[in-house]
């Protein structure tokens, strides 16, 4: 019995559907006061580099691809301004994102207060108290200048807020990968991808960076 040819449009639709199922996109946003090291953490993770001078950022979007458990995942990382001068831009970033890193510096108590403000804004915009958030205490290399107790922050973040907490040093590359692993594990990814995320960080073959709107150099970041 002779079978008629399969309509080419049907074949193409099938392939397109499969491609859509196999490709995913996740957006991570870094929020925190100016000078706490948001940009330094992102650059350490993406490029394994450290720039010691503060470079003021308005907004910068990085995009890279993971191959996780056989699934292509595009990870977008938004680096934001540390000032409160762009509320509309920040609100839009929050609305369009899946997980958040709230960064403070362990030698700057005021930056921890900023974390609390940003957290309230996220919960208000997302209208979901279970929004994935990782609180990051950066500048572990400034331990001798520490002014924020890790124990106190840990208690608040994990017990009261029910978020993850890590301390890092972008300068010394300490716990930087762990921050991104936590964010991706808690982002809106299928559960079958979690074991692959726990095992390793995959190689990123491509990177696209939207040109930053930034100016000025001053303090040391770590």
How would you explain this protein's 3D organization?
The protein is α/β, with parallel strands linked by helices and 222 residues long. It has one domain (24-50, 67-201): Rossmann fold. Helices cover 36% and strands 28% of the residues. Strands 7-6-5-1-4-3-8 form a 7-stranded mixed beta sheet, sandwiched between helices. β6 (133-138), α5 and β7 (164-167) form a beta-alpha-beta unit. It is globular. The relative contact order is 0.21.
Q: In short, what is this structure?
A:
This protein has 222 residues and is α/β, with parallel strands linked by helices.
What's the CATH superfamily, by name? P-loop containing nucleotide triphosphate hydrolases
Order of helices and strands: HEHEEEHEHEHEHHEE
* Tally of helical runs: 7
Strand content: 25-35%
How large is the radius of gyration? 20 Å
Shape: globular
How many domains in all?
1
Overall structural class, as computed from helix and strand content, comes to alpha/beta
Question: How many E-type strands?
Answer: 9
Terminal Cα separation, in Å? 72 Å
Pfam family, one: Ras
Membrane topology: Lipid-anchor
Protein name: Small monomeric GTPase
Subcellular location: Cell membrane
Compile the SSE list and pairings:
Layout: H1 8-22, E1 23-32, H2 38-47, E2 53-57, E3 59-68, E4 71-80, H3 87-95, E5 99-105, H4 109-126, E6 133-138, H5 150-160, E7 164-167, H6 176-186, H7 194-199, E8 207-209, E9 214-220
Parallel strand pairs: 1-4, 1-5, 5-6, 6-7
Antiparallel strand pairs: 2-9, 3-4, 3-8
């Amino acid at each position: 019995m002779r079978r008629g040819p399969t309509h080419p449009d049907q074949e193409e639709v099938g392939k397109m559907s499969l491609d859509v199922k196999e490709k995913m996109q996740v957006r991570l946003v870094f929020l925190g006061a100016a000078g706490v090291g948001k940009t330094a953490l992102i650059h350490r993770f993406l490029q394994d580099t450290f720039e010691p001078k503060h470079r003021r950022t308005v907004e910068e979007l990085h995009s890279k691809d993971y191959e996780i458990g056989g699934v292509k995942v595009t990870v977008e990382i938004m680096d934001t301004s540390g000032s409160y001068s762009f509320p509309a831009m920040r609100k839009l970033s929050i609305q369009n994102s899946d997980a958040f890193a709230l960064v403070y510096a362990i030698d700057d108590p005021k930056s921890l207060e900023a974390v609390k403000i940003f957290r309230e804004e996220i919960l208000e915009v997302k209208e979901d108290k279970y929004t994935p958030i990782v609180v990051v205490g950066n500048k572990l290399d400034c331990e001798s200048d520490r002014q924020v107790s890790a124990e106190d922050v840990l208690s608040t973040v994990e017990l009261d807020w029910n978020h993850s907490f890590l301390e890092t040093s972008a300068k010394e590359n300490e716990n930087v990968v762990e921050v991104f692993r936590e964010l991706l594990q808690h982002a809106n990814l299928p559960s079958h991808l979690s074991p692959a995320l726990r095992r390793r960080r995959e190689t990123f073959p491509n990177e696209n960076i939207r040109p930053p709107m930034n100016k000025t150099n001053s303090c040391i970041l770590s």
